[in-house]
Design brief:
Phosphorylase Kinase, domain 1; 5 domains; five-stranded antiparallel β-sheet; 20% strand; flat
């Protein structure tokens, strides 16, 4: 055992077993370890001891806490970090695949489809991080890991946290770039030591894309200085010349992202992703290159949509000829997402008079109602799903709304009334008229009750038996809500608990059983809490680490009950023949639910996974305790799949049973309430 390996083991303690040191480049030493409690492999990255004297441990910890909040399917997360025995370290999941650098070294250039897919996934990850105010600052093939058919971006870690811990700069979305980076992938402004922003990372990712598609970087030289100089002065050879079969839109997107001037690139990584996917986002229409009535055509990308809209007005409200031509071409080939993006770029809708000939095959309509009326309505197109998180909702007015003509496809509808928010999904079909509707149940002052959705009466998806209308938590019970139960003395009120509980296979009196339901510090509460409090910044995450008995006691304290399977699956599927709350398929499930993730997310974070009644997170995030026991067994059913489960575990066939004393970081619950017969709809 090396001296450093032994010191790392001491720093980590008994929670981890350090197995070996892994080959690594850059400034960190890397170790493979086993997280004992979860029996999973992790990677421990350690700052070399000879560098720690330059770094503020407190600042390093602060930076790592910020980075640990990045939760995205294409970002390798930071599980924890620490400083002990003069070591600074952080821990990440172990990825069994290979790095993009290894793939490039082995295969040379990659298939174009694979290259574009990797670029889009990493661009989506960068767009998410940038929206959170965080730059990576070292985009390169070594930091892109390939696992199966997907890519994840690693090392939002030592590279930036070390620089910030040294300088105390904070280095958020705008930062001095020269201190961190790899010469082959540094933007011109980073080479020059100027301030950098998201556009510098778009540039670096475009360098990676060029290398994947052509088999070599766009800028090469005999020394690092020569490469840096090429970034500043040498235009890259167009990809279309290096590899003629590259689609024109891909070649153009990468060329634009490699512009020497930041203002000529895509504004965001999401814009880059959409351009790579064939969307015209951020393109410069050919018909808008000269001034018109005093308007200057040399505009920034951010001002392009506004300029196009002015031109539309000056042409008597007609669509620009090039935009109209592109819409017709997209309609002929069935590229509906492209039509929607083109319309958004000029502030127009399918109701525009120039599109009358297209309406029959490419549009349908939706009306929105609510009970009570007067809810504010806004709508956003769901697809392409990878860009949904950055899409803007467009107002449709207040309920009831008149029929709105939309491009065929899936939409997220958001209704707001008296501080309550409901999300719905609606699928527009050619020529069809759809109605989306939501019921707002006034907030109840009852203890522990959160926002609820109204689930109408109907057949149970389990066996067809009738289910009366009921109310259900819109979200899984959060740490913050469960805190109220703890603070109110829920663990001391024996009236909320059965007289005898089954623990470890034997009946135990409630007084003895409750003494076992304690947090890490011995106070009443879920197993993962400390000092009778939930973890910092996790108030809006689902509560976990609770038994079926605790979930049942909370529900009783809140005036409700755990939902039965008939109720729970009715809320998920409604009257439809579904597999998941959003429909029958699992395509792009990572954009609709927290499945195959790394940890819980805030409740309601996935608007596109909503059920037909407006209940959120019925698939993923945490499995949920139900009232039903497993027939013939001393276990209770948990449904819906969790953040660590594959997508198929969220469906009806994969509900599982656990002993009522079982706890897990993947298991939570929500509450149901009956509706008085006089109030049922």
């Amino acid at each position: 055992m090396s001296d450093l390996l032994g010191r790392v083991q001491v720093a980590l303690g008994d929670a981890f077993r350090v197995e070996s040191e892994l080959p690594a480049g850059g400034m960190s030493r890397v170790f493979l370890a086993l997280e004992v409690s979860l029996n999973r492999k992790v990677v421990v990255k350690v700052l070399p001891p000879n560098m720690t004297s330059e770094v503020s441990a407190a600042r390093f910890r602060q930076e790592m806490e910020l980075l640990a909040r990045l939760q995205h399917p294409h970002i390798l997360p930071i599980l924890s970090s620490g400083s002990r025995s003069e070591l600074l370290y952080y821990i990440m999941p172990f990825v069994a695949g290979e790095s993009l650098r290894h793939r490039l070294t082995t295969d040379g250039k990659l298939p174009i489809a694979d290259s574009v897919r990797i670029l889009v996934e990493i661009a989506d990850a960068l767009g998410y991080a940038h929206a959170a105010g965080v730059l990576h600052r070292d985009i390169k093939p070594e930091n892109i890991l390939l696992e199966g058919r997907h890519a994840v971006l690693a090392d939002f870690g030592v590279a930036r946290a070390l620089a910030d811990a040294r300088s105390g700069s904070g280095g958020r979305l705008t930062a001095t770039g020269v201190s961190v980076g790899t010469p082959g992938y540094m933007s011109p402004e980073q080479v020059a030591g100027d301030a950098i922003d998201a556009r510098a990372e778009v540039y670096a990712l475009a360098v990676v894309g060029y290398e994947m598609i052509s088999g070599k970087p766009p800028f090469e030289g005999p020394s690092a200085q020569a490469v840096l100089a090429a970034h500043l002065t040498t235009p890259p050879l167009p990809l279309s010349e290096v590899r003629p079969e590259v689609p024109v839109h891909v070649s153009r997107a990468i060329a634009r992202a490699l512009s020497k001037q930041p203002e000529e690139r895509f504004v965001t990584a999401h814009d880059f992703a959409e351009a790579l996917s064939g969307s015209p986002t951020g393109e410069r229409p050919a018909g808008i290159r000269r001034s018109r009535r005093g308007l200057v055509a040399a505009v920034t990308v951010a001002g392009l949509a506004a300029l196009v809209w002015v031109i539309v007005q000056n042409r008597g409200s007609g669509l620009p000829e090039n935009v109209l031509a592109d819409i017709r071409t997209a309609a002929d080939s069935g590229r509906l997402d492209v039509i929607a993006t083109l319309l958004d770029s000029v502030g127009a809708t399918m109701a525009h008079r120039d599109l009358a000939g297209l309406a029959a095959g490419t549009s349908g309509s939706v009306s929105v109602t609510s009970d009570p009326t007067g809810a504010e309505v806004s709508i956003a197109r769901a697809t392409p799903l990878a860009g949904f998180a950055t899409r803007t909702y467009r107002s449709l007015g207040t309920t009831p709304t008149t029929a709105t003509l939309l491009v065929v496809g899936e939409y997220s509808v958001r209704l707001t009334h008296a501080g309550m928010v409901r999300f719905l999904l609606v699928r527009i079909e050619p020529g069809a008229e759809k109605t989306a509707s939501a019921v707002f149940t006034p907030a109840d002052s009852g203890r522990g009750k959160g926002e609820v959705v109204h689930v109408s009466a109907g057949p149970s998806p389990v066996d067809g038996s009738p289910v009366e209308a009921f109310l259900l938590d819109q979200f899984e019970v959060t740490n913050e809500r469960f805190q109220r139960f703890v603070t109110a003395g829920g663990y001391r009120d024996v009236t909320l608990w059965p007289a005898t509980l089954l623990l470890d296979g034997r009946p135990v009196p409630v007084s003895e059983a409750l003494s076992r339901f304690v947090d890490r510090t011995g106070l009443p509460g879920p197993r993962g809490w400390e000092g009778g409090r939930y973890p910092t910044d996790r108030g809006n995450h689902p509560v976990t680490g609770i038994t079926w008995y605790e979930a049942q006691a909370f529900a009783k304290w809140a005036g409700g009950e755990l939902p039965t399977g008939h109720r729970w699956w009715r809320a998920a599927y409604g009257d439809s023949v579904s597999i998941y709350p959003w429909g029958v398929d699992a395509v792009d499930a990572q954009h609709r639910a927290n499945l195959e993730g790394v940890a819980t997310t805030p409740v309601g974070a996935f608007a596109l996974g909503v059920s037909r009644f407006g209940a959120m997170d019925l698939a993923g995030n945490v499995r949920e305790w139900l009232a039903d026991p497993v027939p013939g067994a001393s276990r209770y059913i948990a449904a819906g799949g969790s953040w660590q489960d594959p997508f198929y575990m969220a469906d009806l066939l994969h509900a599982e049973g656990f002993p009522p004393s079982h706890t897990s970081p993947t298991l939570g619950f929500r509450v149901a309430w009956p509706i008085p017969a006089s109030s049922r709809r």
